[in-house]
Specification:
homodimer; alpha/beta; 434 Repressor (Amino-terminal Domain); Rossmann fold; 3 domains; DNA-binding
DNA sequence: GGGGCAAATCTATGCGCTTTAATCGCCGCG
DNA sequence: CGCGGCGATTAAAGCGCATAGATTTGCCCC
């Protein structure tokens, strides 16, 4: 690589000052057409590429939005994509079978950034992320979007003192950061309501880990609908991390043995719903024949599943877009108050609740 | 946002010079533990975030790799994701049903970047991309990865004079850029060979657009296998852009009418294969009963399809990883010659060729 | 107490660009 | 013929950090 030409080189070649070169690129109308052409010609001849670093330094803005992605696989499946795994490893076969939650959101962020003339920086949060890594990203963007539970709140707070930070999919709270969430409660309430009024079910158990704000809200929705109908709340214990499949099998077996199988399982996530459907199938219980199962998220895996999963679809792309939009707005004109936004969800009535043919 | 504190502020507060502050962050071992702590404490108290712009300027490197993504949907389906489409629009329902080609590749790039301590900048190539947009990305990264046919060669050449540029999935050629490709020819040769020797087929038609280097190579693989077996080459005309489904239907109808249906369709892409399978099904022709159909790419859509599509899987994630790896290597020590690498593909024998039960 | 040496720290400069304030050139007009 | 006024251009001062080279500090030994 030859040394990159700078404004000085272009200026020299065009016989003007560097200021004129700069103006030519940033305020073309302020420079006489003839000199503009001279500058452009010089730039072209030299293969000039303006340095974003220098520009960023001078302007105090980078024109980039950051997104902290995270290793979904490692977190959820206990499987870390092995950097050295040979291609074609069958174990990795369905690794990326479906667009995962954060892929969708990321896509939304990308779309909005592009639309508004920003570029996106994607960083990850590995378990080993040092504060330096984080600063490495935070230092080069004008705004930062993060997934919940990927970064310690304390760090986020500090970063948010300097640049706007938006949390994606975190329920509305008062942590001082911007946030976008979805209507977790309303979604599961609507779903539960559907099971009750359309299918006439009364013994509906909620499946899901509590302790996470979004799951709590889903539970609230479930409870609200049940109570409104005068039905009894019933919950299923939560699987330990990484043990979902086995736990679901055991749980189903237990219920079967005790004859306590509910009429429906309202799961807090599609992932759980799918695991329970597998467990039920393995135990010879028909879904939705003998029991209805519903999820939450709207993963494609649920759509492809047979019976197709009745669930609540989250507007994932929209989530990302909204988050990016908030950031970009804040960059332009920082507001005093954190912006919190909640997006509507959508009931996806498919087969596993008993609607349509299974 | 309060003014961002700088090294000067930190230095002042810690009672040291800015050089020491800088060292504390970049070469911690060169600074005495006691002063290091003082600096860190000051930085923390001030909420200091190093400016990547300034750092990049001073170092002459940005620590970022760029990826020019592109609007796959608009290109392939004629559908532009509408920024203003309301969430829940059914038309968008299966929009993101499966991880698309470039999502996979992008994931690979991300993984390698993270592994090597780089961050990724994602930019897009909209039809409206001006040279300025491109420079906007090229100017802020140390290396650039691009998908084929997204940027004019002339521009790529110019950029590559300053920073390494790698083309993803472009067959080996001599355009002076770095490149990663897959074994298109070997893949389709193996697939064709499978149809010939395992299934004993002799009338196998190649389906696919020529004129694209990768497709040409696939055709070569097909031809090679056919000729080696002493069989006749046969091709099916190519569908005009965006007309795939209709064209496939017409083609199938035509063959049926003329009684010229081959024993197998070796398609150059999964997308074509799926379209032909739909067309065949619509025409009442059984796959693989009456005709075998194969693809190329390894899309998930083919895996979920019934019968599951026999195809050649491209190592998409690996493609991205390799590309990023080349870039990062080149940043570290620029080589004189462009690096070209070809990755192996993998035959995925599933149902549509007649293997296993359909 | 002083000399010598390595480690620690600091001084000073430059990285490439933006931007403000000042200068230049030119025209029309009194 | 000179002056005001205006648009085009430029000089110069940073922006925040890294780093070579200068300087100081700390420490050991005589």
């Amino acid at each position: 690589m030859a040394k990159r030409p700078t404004v000085y080189d272009v200026a020299a070649r065009a016989g003007v000052s560097i200021a004129t070169v700069s103006f030519t690129f940033t305020q073309p109308h302020k420079v006489r057409p003839s000199t503009r052409e001279a500058v452009e010609e010089a730039a072209r001849a030299l293969g000039y590429l303006p340095s974003a670093s220098a520009r960023g330094l001078a302007r105090g803005k980078t024109g980039a939005i950051g997104l902290f992605s995270f290793d979904y696989y490692a977190r959820n499946s206990g499987v870390t994509p092995d950097a050295d795994a040979p291609f074609g490893d069958e174990a990795n076969e369905d690794f990326r079978m479906f667009p995962l939650y954060h892929d969708e959101v990321q896509r939304g962020v990308e779309m909005e950034c592009w639309r508004r003339g920003y570029v996106l920086m994607v960083g990850d949060t590995k378990s080993t992320s040092s504060e330096a890594d984080i600063a490495g990203i935070a230092g080069r963007v004008d705004g930062l979007a993060v997934f919940p539970n990927t970064l310690p709140d304390e760090i986020l707070l500090r970063i948010s003192k300097r640049i706007p930070v938006v949390e994606l999919s975190i329920p509305i709270n008062n942590n001082g950061l911007h946030g976008v969430s979805v209507d977790n409660e309303g979604g599961l309430a609507a779903l539960t309501e559907h099971l009750i009024s359309v299918h006439g079910l009364t013994d509906i158990a909620f499946v899901g880990p509590l302790g996470f704000p979004d799951k709590e809200h889903r539970f609230s929705g479930y409870s609200r609908a049940m109570e409104a109908a005068g039905l009894a709340i019933r919950t299923v214990d939560t699987a330990p991390p990484g043990q979902l499949a086995a736990f679901a099998r055991d749980t189903v077996a237990g219920m079967l043995a005790e004859g306590t199988l509910p009429q429906a399982l309202a799961c807090s996530t599609d992932e759980e719903a799918l695991a329970y459907m597998d467990a039920l199938a393995a135990a010879g219980v028909s879904v939705p024949g003998q029991i209805a199962v519903t999820g939450f998220d709207g993963l494609v895996a649920g759509l492809v599943n047979r019976p197709a999963l009745t669930t609540v679809r989250q507007p994932l792309v929209e989530l990302g877009r909204t988050g990016a939009s908030i950031l970009i707005d804040q960059v332009a004109s920082p507001g005093k108050e954190p912006v919190k936004r909640q997006l509507p969800v959508k009931l996806m009535i498919r087969e596993s609740c008993g609607c349509r043919a299974a």
